[in-house]
Write a structure and sequence with these properties.
12 helices; 40% helix; five-stranded mixed β-sheet
Length: 393
């Protein structure tokens, strides 16, 4: 049985041109803004902006506020256009190997409710059932507000084709060619967007986080795997085959350890959590149960443990330098659960990056941004918002 939706009818976004979508996206990610400022940022005439804004105001997606402080010396005060976040809600779900994290957000991607559901069975049918239960719970939270829920985003690690809504390969879930968007839509009754988890997180950072207003930046995630989301000329890049940004499988040591991808010396084979646990066991003779215990050994000063993290930092730094040299981003955001060990390899990341970055690429702003898994689920919701607003995605 499909969950009961807070509204009985599907709703479509009231724009039908790329220019109107661009205007709304600019206000959503950078607003509130005066109409003249919107026109300047999107490169449209004030008349074109007014034409784009009118139906959005009529439909309740945009509102205008009078900014008394912006009153010119002569004339009326400026009207600031902003998004009404309470106009719609969206659900985001991040699927990991052992749980599903779900969030209910408003149109501005602010988290209203968060839920964690344990995942004991990774088979697609079982995961879909858990997603359906989670969505039902979050829809019930939205029902009392009377605000429509207009989409569901699902984020999964691995090779994901967003256009087709298919998980081609997810090593952590052991999935191949799962039409997840179609199945989840049938199960939940909502429009569904499925994307790679790092790209989804990158969408959230692009629209609502550290990348807002930037045309070129990257998000590097450190943890069980080493991932990278790329924004080039204002668009999240998936590449012709959907695997752009896989810096985890950039070779930084041809004689290094074997990676699960079949190559040697990949960043992930040196700096991924499983690789760190294995290397600490080899270096110390102590077998850590997991990444947390490996981190504890290093913090306690067990001989050889800190050196493993230092090598991991060097590998990550070289990976980031590769991104900077190839694409020249204005900013690289480092995140992921692996930041728990950041004090152990921050210096190596920074020094190796500066040494390996070519010329002015070293001026790239590299910052850390700890993001819990609720933020990754928020990223999934951001992809649903993006799909709702911009059909060209």
């Amino acid at each position: 049985m499909c969950p009961t939706r807070p509204t009985s009818q599907a709703e479509t976004f009231p724009v039908n041109t790329p220019a109107a979508a661009q205007v709304f996206t600019t206000v959503l990610t950078q607003g509130p803004l005066a109409r003249l400022e919107v026109a300047r940022r999107v490169g449209l005439s004030p008349a074109a902006v007014t034409k784009a804004v009118r139906p959005l105001i009529e439909a309740g997606y945009l509102v205008e506020d009078v900014d008394e402080e912006a009153r010119p010396a002569l004339g009326r005060p400026a009207n600031l256009v902003r998004v009404d976040g309470s106009r719609a809600m969206f659900v985001g779900a991040k699927v990991t190997g052992d749980e599903i994290i779900g969030v209910l957000t408003d149109l501005c991607c602010r988290i209203r409710v968060a839920r964690h559901v344990p995942l004991s069975d990774r088979a697609p049918k079982a995961v879909l059932a858990s997603i359906a239960d989670l969505v039902q719970d979050l829809l019930a939270e939205a029902t009392g507000s009377g605000v429509p829920v207009l989409g569901l985003g699902v984020a999964v690690s691995g090779d994901v084709d967003r256009t087709e809504g298919t998980v081609r390969y997810s090593p952590f879930l052991e999935w191949r060619d799962v039409p997840l968007a179609e199945l989840a839509a049938m199960t939940t009754g909502l429009p569904v967007t499925v994307d790679n988890d790092v790209r989804a997180l990158t969408v959230a950072e692009q629209w609502f986080g550290a990348g807002a207003g930037l045309t070129d930046f990257a998000v590097v995630t450190v943890g069980a795997g080493i991932g990278c989301g790329l924004v080039v000329h204002g668009r999240v890049v998936a590449g012709a085959h959907g695997v752009a940004g896989e810096i985890g499988h950039v070779t930084v040591d041809p004689n290094g350890p074997l990676c699960h991808c079949g190559n040697r010396g990949c960043v992930e084979a040196i700096a991924g959590e499983a690789a760190i646990v294995r290397q600490i066991q080899e270096a110390t003779g102590v077998e850590p149960a997991d990444a947390a215990e490996a981190l504890s050994l290093a913090h306690r000063g067990v001989a050889g443990a800190r050196e493993v993290y230092a090598r991991a930092g060097e590998a990550i730094g070289r990976g980031i330098a590769t991104v900077a040299n190839l694409l020249g981003p204005e900013r690289v955001v480092i995140s992921g659960e692996g930041l728990a060990a950041y004090d152990l390899f921050a210096e190596q990341i920074r020094d190796t990056f500066v040494a390996a970055a070519f010329g002015s690429a070293a001026q790239c702003d590299v910052l850390t941004r700890p993001l819990p898994f609720e933020e990754w689920a928020r990223g999934a919701a951001a992809t649903a918002i993006q799909s709702f607003v911009r059909a060209d995605t």
